[in-house]
Design brief:
By secondary structure, the chain is α/β, with parallel strands linked by helices. The chain is built from eleven helices and eleven strands. The strands form three sheets. The protein has a five-stranded parallel beta sheet. Helix 6 links the parallel strand 7 (114-121) and strand 8. Helix 6 (127-139) crosses helix 11 (231-245). It is globular, with a radius of gyration of 20 Å.
């Protein structure tokens, strides 16, 4: 529960001052033995804790989802498997799963999305990482425009969407192969560009290393690079920039 919700409940006489005091005296995390849930994170940073699902056993994942959902009224998880989704759906039939981005989520209805983030991909194979970025930003309250398959091998495709890209508060450039898209975008806009190298490519791509090196060596100004396939990190950072711009 958010701090403002607690204060409003006290104001509306739905919670006593003593109950609110007990809430604020709680530890800023919840000890679960195998996990320490950071229930204070949204108060500190403006973003609630998100679950990295890959590698988590069902006996650990389910209680974490239950606790975060009861705390926040919604929950968001990355890198989830189909099997994890099927397990959670038995308890939470409203949970949604996107097999492309591998995101699971329960969201409040009618959530407002404002600002503008442009998420661009070089190719169609980069979409899973781009969707992780886009859906992360949307979950945190930003409006996202998806601009896919505009890589440098057919740069006229990018120019056809340049107007909306230049209006965005932040641009996320997702690319594998040689990763040139981020540099091209950096030279066309006056807003921050977050470069996301993907592991898409042939052997000498080295599972995304070639794209990573291209992006961190970009000659374009205003380009910052996250880790290989780190769509979540890009979406989070883009939302921070979008919020500041708003």
């Amino acid at each position: 529960m958010k701090t403002i919700d607690i204060l409003n409940k006290v104001k509306d006489h739905e919670m006593t001052v003593e109950e609110a005091e007990r809430f604020f005296r709680r530890e800023p995390f919840e000890e679960m033995g195998y996990a320490k849930l950071d229930t204070h994170r949204e108060t500190r940073s403006g973003f609630p804790e998100v679950i990295f699902c890959s590698g988590k056993a069902d006996v650990h994942l389910l209680p974490i989802v239950e606790r975060l959902y009861s705390e926040n009224g919604e929950v968001f998880g990355t890198r989830a498997s189909q099997e994890q989704y099927e397990m959670l759906r038995k308890i939470y039939p409203q949970i949604r799963y996107d097999p492309i981005s591998r995101i699971i989520k329960i969201e409040r209805e009618g959530k407002e999305r404002t600002g503008l983030i442009a998420v661009c991909t070089a190719g169609t194979a980069d979409i899973p990482v781009a969707e992780e970025a886009a859906q992360t930003a949307e979950y945190f309250g930003s409006h996202v425009e998806r601009i896919f398959d505009v890589g440098v091998s057919g740069i006229h495709r990018l120019f056809s969407r340049l107007e909306v890209i230049q209006k965005a508060n932040c641009i996320v450039a997702v690319a594998g192969m040689e990763g040139a898209l981020a540099s091209v975008l950096g030279g066309l806009v006056d807003r921050p560009v977050i470069a996301v190298p993907t592991s898409v490519g042939y052997g000498a791509n080295f599972h995304g290393l070639s794209a990573l090196l291209t992006m961190i060596n970009s000659c374009a100004n205003g380009v910052a690079t996250v880790n290989i396939d780190n769509g979540y990190g890009a979406g989070y950072l883009a939302t921070q920039i979008d919020r500041m711009a708003r």
